[in-house]
Design goal:
This protein has about 900 residues and is of the alpha/beta class. It is built from 37 helices and 33 strands. The strands form seven sheets. It has an eight-stranded mixed beta sheet. An eight-stranded parallel β-barrel has the order 26-27-28-29-30-31-32-33, surrounded by six helices. A five-stranded antiparallel beta sheet has the order 1-2-7-5-6, with helices on both faces. Bound molecules: adenosine-5'-diphosphate and magnesium ion (2 copies).
Length: about 900
């Protein structure tokens, strides 16, 4: 028997058993749209009868040089005959003709990517039959011209403009403001003219044979899988290219049969905020595409409660059924034909990050999904959006006061964006990519051809379209701030400018848009990153905390960072970089004097001054982290970093010498000579400290061993601060971290010297502090000899930035501005190893470090403090390796909490599907 290429909507079970039972497989075979139409049919919802031609048929068609695979067409005709039986109409019949739509639908929804043809089956003969059957010639001639237009543009590639011009002509001739005023004769005339256009562009007559229409439309859907815009979209959305699309053939239902008919698109909850309230647009007396195309102003869907109360009540019930059934927020299409509701599509709805979080949390509380599933459904990227820029309040206020507030539209994708206006996708892309400009792409509305420009832009602004418009969908999916439907905005593509009243913005002028509020401003507003205090996010993260095994700590150098980290849920400080404290203006001179002086008295004086500063810094941290561990890393960078640059010193010196020759007074000569002397002294120190390869030079523990005074001062400061805080009732847990160890003897020697100081201070202060000594693991040798090192370390912290550098033998700064990008683009490296832990190499080294370390010291505490600690992929690796915690920037803490929970839940096989 030949392969089954065609499944009726009520043959879901057969499709399911063909793919071996799982829903993903069904979606793969029938496409998302087809699978859900079949599923809605199965659970008894009103779906117009139809069938799906499989994605396998599409792939076979494309593989076989654009030929239908054997028996596919015959099966399609047989299925059509079944549909005829169900609907009681006949395809191509002159009395009671069946009309169908031909709809594409791949496994993953690709909004607007591949086109649909409605009203297939109309020709001169069936038109008359329909007129007789409905008694409404105006309606039928409108359908017919729509078919010619859609078939022309979708199947044959005829542009829309000539069609639109004809309609405009007829409107003008009648003095009509809108299409609704056109009569049956007008539409009949329009249809005739459309056929001429068709003939002119295609060189053939519009196919009057309904079966020919169906065949060509089926082929067009298959071919559209490999259309440029579909390929672009798949590339951007990372959808594989070999899935193919299904074709859905479905009985037409008509939303344009008068005032008791309508068509609409809805989300079962608010896709922007997540609020549990149906949200959508609909049009009375209209056909499908009209809503999305933004041709007529749509009405909020809840108004159906008044205009079509019965259909509305049924619709509300159905949305509940769908949510219960799919256990997710749904995005649905429906049509009401003379009071009867029909469901035409359902799929998991796209949503903003805020909405995703709220919906997941709400659904768990409603009992629709488990808490585990709720946590799994939110992605780390979505949590990241809570940290996305918003306009600075005073900057926004100033803009309003200065009259730079331009207009407001629909807030369809949150976040603030600032850029220069670009009025087409190509320009937006080239300005952004070639010229490095920040761009806001501005269009009357967007089309699938515009996606590349939208992706390159900071944000998107359109004058037309609603919450379900193409611009809104794409923006939400890719997290671009967007404002759409700004009716006040007059875009003049000819002059390349836009106007609101008498305000004019030329292409290239700065504008600012707020996708959270829908506001549009002239000029550049300042942006800020908001605090995450969203109650649903908080709830979700608390659930995540219950599931994860990894602890999440933060890297923080100052008390205010520590406070923020703690507010975001950090349970410790994994890295405080003490040298940052040395760079501040009032401290740097002391550091410089210390480095350059040979005079013990001067050195002591400088150390004392620094001790005072450091003690305060540490006390602040301990107070902020009361009750939690604080890891303080002793000085790490090479000393020359604290001195002025060699080049600057040289040019200053040369400058002084020139000025000396032209000096006018003795005083000036004196001053200059002093300056030159000072300069030369510093220059000598800088020269002495100069290293060919500072990254691998005198730094880290090597520095501490060479110049013990500095690290001893730091440890003294830590313990004095700890004792002082403890006396005030603060619960302190300092952990002293020694950087860049590569041999156990380094650690042994340095620890001995430092612990002596610690004990001295505690004895003096009569306090016992709960402390640890440990080391960073930043060079391969340390990982490879971790068993030895663990004898002197109570904890390890992987400094994966240096460890990546020393493992790869790559200097990050040099690599990232040079060959590394190339490496990644050419696939030599799968990704930038400084962004995500290299799973093959680095992870192995880390594993060795963890395992060896714990053989000597089973209680060894192991964490990571490199930037990788905030990267979800790397967090999964840390989880796998059995680390105790990850430490990341305070802003990444919420993301890390979620990612750590994901890692734990995935290991348990718990889960939830991610769409
Ligand atoms: P898209 O993927 O672009 O949304 P669809 O195939 O869903 O394309 O269809 C486009 C529009 O046509 C939608 O509004 C849809 O509801 C409508 N439509 C599709 N098939 C039918 C049908 N059989 N009867 C009435 N309207 C239909
Ligand atoms: Mg659709
Ligand atoms: Mg380091």
């Amino acid at each position: 028997m030949a392969k089954k290429w065609v499944y009726l909507f009520d043959q879901l079970d057969e499709a399911r058993s063909y793919v071996g039972g799982d829903w993903e497989g069904v979606r793969g075979l029938l496409g998302g749209k087809g699978a859900n139409l079949a599923e809605m049919t199965r659970i008894g919802l009103p779906v117009p009868p139809g069938f799906s031609v499989t994605t396998e048929a599409c792939n076979a068609y494309l593989a076989e040089g654009m030929k239908f695979p054997g028996e596919m067409w015959e099966q399609e005709l047989a299925a059509l005959a079944e549909v005829e039986k169900k609907s009681g109409k006949k395809f191509g019949d002159s009395k009671n003709p069946l009309l169908v739509s031909c709809r594409s639908g791949a496994k993953f929804s690709m909004p607007g990517m591949m086109d649909t043809v409605l009203n297939i089956g109309l020709n001169e003969e069936t038109v008359n039959g329909m007129i007789e059957a409905t008694g409404d010639p105006r309606f039928v001639y409108d359908l017919y011209r729509r078919l010619i237009q859609m078939f022309g543009s979708v199947v044959m590639g005829v542009p829309d403009e000539p069609f639109e011009e004809v309609i405009a002509e007829f409107r003008d001739a009648r003095g009509a403001k809108s299409d609704t005023e056109l009569t049956a004769d007008d539409w009949k005339g329009v249809g005739e003219r459309f056929k001429e256009i068709f003939r002119r562009y295609c060189g053939i007559d519009f196919p009057s044979d309904p079966y020919e229409q169906l065949r060509l439309a089926t082929e067009a859907v298959f071919k559209s899988w490999n259309g440029k815009r579909a390929i672009d979209y798949r590339n951007a959305a990372k959808i594989p290219h070999d899935l193919g699309t299904a074709v859905n053939i479905q009985t037409m239902v008509f939303g344009n049969m008068g005032q008791n008919s309508a068509t609409g698109v809805s989300m079962t909850r608010n896709a922007t905020t997540g609020e549990k309230k149906i949200e959508g647009d609909y049009l009375m007396n209209a056909q499908g595409e009209d809503v999305v195309a933004g041709i007529r102003a749509t009405l909020p869907v809840e108004q159906m409660a008044e205009t079509l109360p019965n259909a509305w009540n049924q619709f509300v019930d159905i949305t509940r059924t769908l949510e219960q059934h799919y256990r997710n927020m749904q995005d649905v299409e429906f049509t009401v034909e003379r009071g009867t509701l029909w469901m035409l599509q359902t799929r998991d709805g796209k949503r903003t990050a805020q909405a995703a979080v709220r919906i997941a949390a709400d659904m768990a509380e409603e009992g629709l999904i488990s808490r585990e599933e709720a946590v799994m459904r939110v992605t780390p990227e979505q949590v990241d959006f809570f940290l996305h820029p918003q306009f600075n309040v005073s900057s926004r206020k100033a803009a309003i006061e200065e009259g730079r507030s331009l207009a407001a539209g629909l807030n369809v994708s949150p976040g603030a964006a600032v850029g220069v206006a670009a009025f087409d996708a190509d320009l937006a892309e080239s300005w952004a990519k070639k010229d490095g400009k920040k761009v806001i792409m501005v269009r009357p509305e967007t089309k699938p051809d515009d996606v590349h420009g939208m992706l390159a832009a900071e944000g998107i602004l359109t004058s037309r379209g609603g919450r379900t418009s193409h611009a809104a969908l794409v923006a939400r999916q890719f997290g671009k701030p967007a404002v759409v439907g700004v009716a006040a905005l007059n875009i003049d593509m000819g002059q390349r400018l836009m106007k609101v009243g008498d305000k004019v913005i030329n292409e290239g002028d700065w504008i600012s848009i707020d996708g959270t509020t829908g506001e549009v401003f002239m000029g550049q507003l300042d942006t800020v990153v908001p605090d995450i205090s969203d109650p649903w996010l908080m709830k979700l993260l608390l659930w995540a905390d219950e599931f994860r095994r990894l602890d999440v700590w933060a890297n923080a150098d100052y008390p205010h960072d520590a406070k923020r980290a703690r507010a975001y849920g950090a349970r410790g400080i994994g890295l405080c970089r003490t040298e940052h404290m040395f760079f501040q203006a009032e401290r740097l001179p002391h550091v410089q004097r210390l480095i350059m002086s040979n005079d013990p008295a001067v050195m002591r004086e400088s150390l004392d001054a620094l001790l005072h500063f450091q003690r305060e810094d540490f006390a602040g941290l301990f107070r902020a982290m009361d009750g939690l561990p604080v890891i303080i890393r002793l000085i790490d960078p090479p000393l020359h970093e604290f001195l002025p640059s060699f080049e600057n010193l040289l040019s200053e010196l040369a400058d002084s010498k020139v000025r000396l020759q032209h000096a006018a007074s003795l005083k000036e000569i004196d001053d200059l000579l002093k300056k030159i002397e000072e300069n030369e002294r510093i220059l000598k120190s800088v020269e002495a400290l100069h290293e060919a390869n500072p990254m691998l030079g005198l730094r880290g523990v090597r520095l501490g061993i060479t110049m013990p005074e500095l690290t001893q001062m730091q440890v003294r400061a830590i313990f004095e601060a700890a004792c002082q805080c403890a006396k005030q009732g603060v619960d302190v847990h300092p952990e002293i971290m020694i950087p860049l160890t590569c041999h156990v003897n380094e650690l042994k020697k340095q620890r001995e010297a430092l612990e002596t100081v610690a004990k001295e201070v505690m004895a003096q202060e009569r306090e016992t502090i709960d402390y640890k000594f440990g080391t960073m693991i930043e060079v391969p040798r340390a990982a490879l000899t971790a068993d030895e090192i663990a004898e002197y370390a109570e904890f390890f912290s992987f400094g994966t930035n240096d460890l990546t550098q020393t493992t790869f033998g790559i200097s990050r700064d040099d690599a990232e501005k040079g060959f590394l990008i190339n490496y990644v683009q050419n696939g030599i490296l799968p990704e930038n190893p400084f962004v995500s832990i290299d799973d093959k190499g680095l992870a192995k080294l880390m594993q060795t470090g963890v395992e060896l370390g714990r053989t000597t010291r089973p209680t060894l505490e192991v964490g990571i403090c490199g930037e990788h600690g905030g990267d979800p992929k790397s967090i999964a690796i840390c989880h796998r390796l059995g680390l105790n915690y990850v430490s990341c920037s305070p802003f990444r803490v919420p993301i890390a909490r979620l990612a750590a929970a994901h890692a734990a839940l995935k290991e348990r096989g718990a889960g939830g599907h991610e769409d």
